[in-house]
Design brief:
The complex is a heterodimer. By secondary structure, chain A is an alpha+beta fold. Helices cover about 30% and strands about 20% of the residues of chain A. Chain A is built from 8 helices and 9 strands. In chain A, strand 4 and strand 5 form a beta hairpin. By secondary structure, chain B is mostly helical. Chain B starts with a helix and ends with a helix. The chains are: A alpha+beta, B mainly alpha. The interface between A and B is large, with 59 and 84 residues.
């Protein structure tokens, strides 16, 4: 029943439009967080959200223009990632930083491929190298699974690998976001299921955690790994509350 | 669309593309042209100047990181995209602070000085007029519920309390209003 609704009839329940209600902001915190996650994993839903933002945003654009304080732009300049790594005006260093991060990820991937191609290879991966106090990982005699966790656009934020023999999952930073005063939290989202908390992950060194049983299979997995930005110390509700900044799933390399 | 707005839209798209490839100078240009408009949007939602400046800073850091995700072929104008980022950030801020009544907007009198370019307003006004006409065509209860929700970032439950109406009725107003808007705007 998609015919036009008589405007005066308030008895018929009008249909839900989750994308519109998400953009409008009327959903309960739980539904809102679920919709926010859905944006990152359901392209059709994400397109609906963009369409609704385009429809509704002109409402706020009717607001009067008001100049912010004069020293705000210098503050913003200092807050740009280029400046976090001592970048000059032109942002070149920022790009060098990104390139270095991408190169790091490429090295991780190439090493993983090399390791999986040569069963007795003794070399640990760079990801394992970055772990303080851990010995070289056992060479893998089986296909390697790697998950590249990326934002919607941009370089890989984290790389997740599985060590099946020791039932460990390692998450290493590539070009991670570094939200000030916030925590990055890793979730696992089974197809059609709710996000399950895996734990907080640092943005400056690798983290290891027990391998979830759901990753026991050796092939590609439909389970999505997602990183969300949460208040310091983790999600207050046990479910994602902040924006999802990177997603990915394990594939065989 | 007026030619001036058309030209400026192209310039803003180009600036966003330059930001996506790492040119900080292009971000400064976007700031110069749009910060007053975006600050007005954020201040209208938050009602607090200091908080609004923090959020505007977040917006431009977000634009620096995510300019590449703006796709001009999707039919969303660049100023609308920027305003959506600003509004989303402002609503995030509202949701992260304890619920409190909206403050009176004492800062609204501080209008932007004459030197600030007004071009962004041209196209913005065009889109805003169309939306306003479609909202005005809705039942008054529906349009006012939608306006309140959009500016204040309130949930159905909070909106029902504020309007003193049953939850089901408020949901019905909003959903019917949204369906009506879609029909009107996409026509």
């Amino acid at each position: 029943m998609t015919g036009p609704l008589p405007p005066s009839d308030t008895r018929d329940e009008p249909p839900m439009d989750p994308a519109a209600e998400y953009v409008l902001g009327v959903l309960s915190p739980e539904d809102w967080a679920a919709a926010r996650t859905r944006v990152t994993i359901d392209p059709d839903f994400a397109a609906e959200v963009v369409a609704w933002e385009a429809r509704l945003t002109p409402l706020v654009l009717a607001s009067e223009a008001i100049a912010p304080t004069q020293d705000l732009w210098p503050r913003i300049r200092r807050a740009l990632p280029a400046n976090e790594i001592g970048g000059p005006r032109d942002g070149l260093t920022f790009w060098r930083g990104l390139t270095a991060a991408s190169a790091f990820i490429a090295v991780v991937c190439l090493t993983l491929v090399a390791v999986s191609g040569r069963p007795p290879a003794p070399a640990p991966t760079p990801a394992a190298d970055r772990l303080a106090g851990t010995g070289p990982s056992q060479p893998a005699a089986e296909p390697m699974q790697v998950a590249l966790l990326k934002p919607a656009h941009g370089p890989t934020a984290f790389v997740a690998t599985l060590d099946r023999s020791r039932r460990l999952m390692t998450v290493s930073p590539g070009a991670p976001p570094t939200p000030r005063g916030k925590s990055l939290v890793l979730w696992m989202i089974p197809p059609g299921g709710a996000p399950q908390l895996l734990g907080e992950i640092p943005s400056d060194h690798s983290a290891r955690m027990p391998m979830p049983d759901a990753f026991a299979g050796k092939g590609d997995t439909p389970i999505v790994l997602a990183v969300s930005v949460e208040p310091k110390g983790g999600s207050p509700t046990g479910r994602p509350t902040g924006p999802v900044v990177a997603t990915g799933r394990f594939t065989v390399v | 669309m007026p030619i001036a707005a058309d030209l400026e839209r192209v310039r803003l798209v180009r600036s966003l593309q330059r930001v996506a490839s790492g040119e900080a100078a292009a971000l400064e240009e976007i700031y110069r042209r749009t910060s007053a408009k975006l600050f007005g949007v954020i201040l209208r939602i938050l009602g607090d100047r200091n908080e609004a400046e923090d959020v505007l800073q977040e917006v431009f850091v977000t634009v620096w990181n995510r300019a590449g995700s703006y796709d001009p072929t999707r039919g969303v104008s660049p100023i609308t995209w920027l305003a959506a980022v600003a509004r989303n950030r402002a609503i995030d801020r509202i949701r992260s602070r304890a619920a409190r009544p909206t403050q009176p907007l004492e800062a609204a009198a501080e209008v932007v000085d004459g030197a600030a370019p007004a071009w962004a307003a041209l196209e913005a006004d065009d889109d805003a007029r169309r939306l306003a006409a479609c909202l005005d065509a809705l039942d008054e209860k529906q349009s006012s519920a939608i306006r309140t929700a959009f500016f204040d970032g309130v949930t159905y439950e909070a909106l029902a309390l504020r309007l003193g109406a049953p939850l089901g009725t408020v949901k019905s107003w909003i959903r019917r209003g949204l369906a009506g808007l879609r029909t009107c705007l996409d026509a």
